Amino acid sequence: DDAGQVRVAAVEALSLLQTDAAIEALCRMAEAADPDLRRAALIGLGMANRPEGTQRLLAAMQSSDAATRLVAISALAESGASERVSALERAASDGDENVRAAALGFLSSDPDPEATRILLEQLAHADDQGAFIALLSRPSPGRVAGLMARLPVTELEDANVFRVRAYRNAARAVEELPEPVELLLERERALTDIPG
Fold this sequence. Notes:
By secondary structure, the chain is mainly α. The chain is built from twelve helices and no strands.
């Protein structure tokens, strides 16, 4: 169809079909010359969450076009693919500020404790530590596990004593909560609201 909106809507409909033929069509469209069609296909592949789609999304993250990279990381983050966290870590170093910010935002809401580890490493080397503290304070089911996993590593490293103390205080505050932290997160209470 000549109307771009119709083509994009057709691509989105294909992603809902979940058939092999639909996924093959989306993979072909992810290589289309029309950038809107290509980006819609990437979103569809993320929604479909199939291995062949994940590979296309990972390839699209190498695009010279920042908007395509942004769509690819968004689709990959939402897909739940096992490769998403390592891909987001790479995107957090992208040359485009918008791609970097989106990757960090997706990492901050990802339940995988590895996402927390990545944010903590970024925090250790960041000029604007406040931004990373804000990202780490966003409610995420894997946040506490990620912080707890990082404590022993931090103690072994020649780390900043204040950072180690902050991790210990955070862990102690979480342990002393009157209710499980998961319940607080379900109610979307920020971890920064917890004393300590």
